[in-house]
């Protein structure tokens, strides 16, 4: 099997059910999801299997889900069966809640970084945000874009933020707060004080 086909040499690429310019909004969106998937893979090789077994399991599932979402964005057939469902969004929410119970208290914005794995997860977070923005742009331009992909990407960026903090916490690497940040996150203590 040959990897190159020469079919894209004139700036067009194949979708599921059609062809478009390689710089189309649809290709930009699912191409960014592919970029994101690569950074998830990078983060995975930077995490120790013993310390981060739960996060590695999450990330492997996420890689499959990103393929599903990219497939859905690339599908322009008249009759479509979308692969990405709401279930992975619910799982992400559960995992975020679980990891937040482990996370150190947070009041201010933090700088991306810390350990290599956490830094890669922060990169994944920002790429997920870009993929979401591109998907929203696509949704405005075309009326046949599955909204599940946008919701998934929105929740996914939140997951990466929390996972990056947990990676640093388990490695005992302290998050660095942005020095000019106001207190933007409410801890349980500040919530109790405000409620009283």
TrEMBL record:
Specify whether Transcription is a keyword of the entry: no
Q: Which InterPro entries match?
A: CblAdoTrfase-like, CblAdoTrfase-like_sf, PduO-typ
Q: So, what pathway does this thing act in? A: Cofactor biosynthesis; adenosylcobalamin biosynthesis; adenosylcobalamin from cob(II)yrinate a,c-diamide: step 2/7
**Catalyzed reactions per annotation:** 2 cob(II)alamin + reduced [electron-transfer flavoprotein] + 2 ATP = 2 adenosylcob(III)alamin + 2 triphosphate + oxidized [electron-transfer flavoprotein] + 3 H(+); 2 cob(II)yrinate a,c diamide + reduced [electron-transfer flavoprotein] + 2 ATP = 2 adenosylcob(III)yrinate a,c-diamide + 2 triphosphate + oxidized [electron-transfer flavoprotein] + 3 H(+)
Assembly:
Homotrimer.
What GO molecular functions are on record for this protein?
ATP binding; corrinoid adenosyltransferase activity
Is the keyword Secreted assigned to this protein? Answer: no
Instruction: Report which residue ranges the record marks as coiled coil.
Output: none
Picking any one GO biological process from the record gives: cobalamin biosynthetic process
- Record the organism: Filibacter tadaridae
Keywords, comma-separated and alphabetical: ATP-binding, Cobalamin biosynthesis, Nucleotide-binding, Transferase
| The EC number(s) this enzyme carries | 2.5.1.17
For this chain, the family text in UniProt reads: Belongs to the Cob(I)alamin adenosyltransferase family.
Cite the Cobalamin adenosyltransferase-like domain residue spans from the record. 3-166
Q: Report what the protein is called.
A: Corrinoid adenosyltransferase
């Amino acid at each position: 099997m040959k990897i190159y086909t020469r079919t894209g040499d004139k700036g067009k690429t194949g979708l599921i059910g059609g062809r478009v310019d390689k710089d189309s909004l649809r290709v930009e969106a699912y191409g960014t999801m592919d970029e994101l998937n690569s950074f998830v893979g990078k983060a995975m090789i930077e995490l120790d299997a013993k310390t981060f077994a739960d996060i590695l399991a999450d990330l492997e599932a996420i890689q499959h889900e990103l393929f599903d979402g990219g497939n859905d964005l690339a599908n322009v057939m008249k009759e479509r069966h979308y692969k990405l469902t709401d279930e992975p969004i619910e799982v992400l929410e559960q995992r975020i809640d679980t990891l937040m119970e482990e996370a150190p208290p947070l009041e201010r914005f933090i700088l991306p970084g810390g350990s290599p794995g956490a830094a890669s997860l922060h990169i994944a977070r920002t790429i997920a945000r870009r993929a979401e923005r591109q998907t929203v742009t696509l949704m405005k331009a075309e009326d046949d874009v599955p909204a599940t992909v946008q919701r998934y990407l929105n929740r996914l960026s939140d997951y990466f933020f929390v996972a990056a903090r947990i990676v640093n916490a388990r490695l005992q690497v302290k998050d660095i707060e942005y020095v000019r940040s106001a207190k933007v996150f409410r801890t349980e203590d500040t919530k109790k004080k405000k409620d009283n």
